[in-house]
Predict the structure.
Amino acid sequence: MELVVFSLLNGIVFGLLLFMMSAGLTLIFSMMGVLNFAHASFYMLGAYFAFQISQAVGFWPALVLAPLVVGVAGGLVERYGLRRVHKHGHVPELLFTFGLAFLIQEFVVLGWGRVGVPYRVPEILNFPLFTLFGTNFPAYRAFMVLISIGMFVALFAILTRTRVGLIVQASLTHPHIAATLGHNVPRVFMYVFAGGTALAGLAGVIGGNAFVTNPSMAALLGTIVFVVVIVGGLGSLTGAFIAAMVIGIVQTFSVALDVSVGSFFGLLGLDLSSNSIFYEYWTLTLTDIAPVTPYLLLVLILIFRPMGLMGKRET
Amino acid sequence: MTDRAAGSVRNIAWASYLRSYGLWVLAAVAIFALPHVFDSRANQSMFGQMGIFVVFALSYNMLLGQSGMLSFGHAVYFGFAGFISVHVMRIIESGFAFPVVLLPLFGAAAGLALGIIFGSFSTRRAGTVFAMISLGIAELVGALAFFIGFFGGEEGISGDRMSGPSLPGLSLGPQIQVYYVIAAWTLVAALLMYAITRTPLGRMANAVRDNPERAEFIGYNTQRVRFRMFALSGMFAGVAGALFAIQFEFLQFNNIGVAASGSVLLMTFIGGVGFFMGPILGAILVTFLELELVNVTQAWLLYFGLFFVLMVMFVPAGLAGLIMRHQPIWRAGILHKLAPAYGLALVPSLIFAVGAIGLIEIIYFTSTRAGLNTVMSVYTITFDAVKPLPWIIAGVVAAGGFVLCRLTFPTVRKVWDEVFLEAMAKLNR
């Protein structure tokens, strides 16, 4: 019982973090048609900038400043990098972000060294919120949930209730008509890119101290965020939300449960002794398989439903 | 009279034959001579590695360059064939009489089989769907390789290339013999892949890449074309994988995953996807850099990333594209007119590079240094890295070079355009 409740809670926290990153990515993706390989790198930059800023002026200014700095960096990348490559076509665009991810990782190594930095949860939030079945639930996780939900509501309100949101939506679906009507579509793209990377930066600010802050944190989450976006469906925030929650909860559960594939067969009354064929596969535990599941989901979705769960267009 | 005409026709045929195949002959001579010119063991090993990655990159370009399929998982076929080869090597060790020299046949079969399996569903669509499926497969296989016995888990698996029956004088013990085996397979594989570009399948792959709708209208099944190219490409990747197994006698989970796939993508793109020789250049250059830069600087991954991003931004046609753009100027015989402009561009670029590299080295040293040692040396100049003076000097040099670049590049570009137009005018006359 304890396991189920805590896995569920941690799964939701992880899922919300995934969603915060994929929300920006799915907007960028549906707008430019290019999956941004470097998106998780901006998450990493968010964590590192927050660490640096919080050393100087504390966590709360960092919570605001770090995403802004990441957003500016994202905007510059779009303006002076992506836009220049855009005219060469899709493949160079994709490769640019691919190289950028690599480069950002090396820059982080350059700036902060190869080992992680001690980016910690602020003292004021470092207490157990409640204790259930003898296990503490940290208050910081609840704070992460609050921030994520607040961000989701704000994003949804901006996209559907404001004039800026309308222009963004128009540029998403009908870029040429939006341009003909006098909107500067490239500039809209730049702002969306900056906004999306700022969201990833925010995820880094609140996720970096809850998990780890080291140069490999981007590579760890990078592909999972891709999976969320594609499974959720191109440009669909709701789809990304559902996919993020599902993957977050499934991942957390399979890490927590220590059962092997063979034990399912054991329940059915089959005896799998060590000399049966494929013995090594029966002893694989769910924890072993956990890192594989998102990618399996990705491949299956792309084969059978390329538009994703909630998408209207094909990937 | 008729005899002479026939003779001159034969001469022209010979000349054109030499022109189109002369490069192949030259390459064969270079391949034979190189390990004798640079005859250290490390160099011979490096040349072998170059051969392996030439095959691998060429097979990758069958997808990206020729059929327009961007794959993030090509190392899956390379790695799988490599693991199969190591396993076969171990079976040979325990008594199966098969010459190790012919292992690439097994590799090719393994790559082809896996290519057929994964290609059957992943080539149904091109574009981003294909790219993402390949990424998913690569992540999947890479994660599986970590804990499945066949791939040897974290420790990897190893074999012995010297076991089994050997051809006379070919024990595969000395590095030079391994090199010549790899070189022979590389030549065969490259020739075959070049031949495939000339077949109807190869041509249709280009059509499907450029305009799938039209290809379909003419009556071709685009999925089938993609599938066949994919399976063949997997086969040649398998040859490369088997060669890798022969050279290193060892494979590990990281030979099969996304990182290894990304590396072949880098090579192919840096070399240039638009020309057959592109991936060859890319594989040779990148292998050289990977092996040599490590000895020169700790920050080599950063330079490598910078190089790649700059290539994508400014030279998307790759090295081969860059070279081929000079072809009309060379044929018009006015290549020398570019020399002053290139000289003008080179000086500020070098100044900028010297400054920037110095700065990166200093930053890298201070951020990754262990202990209290603050003395370092760049360009054989030894100094204290925590004092501000070296930072200022490197920064000023870099900034000055950058400004000079901004000032001179427009002139260079103008000269280039003028020379190019002159060449075109000469050729069209």
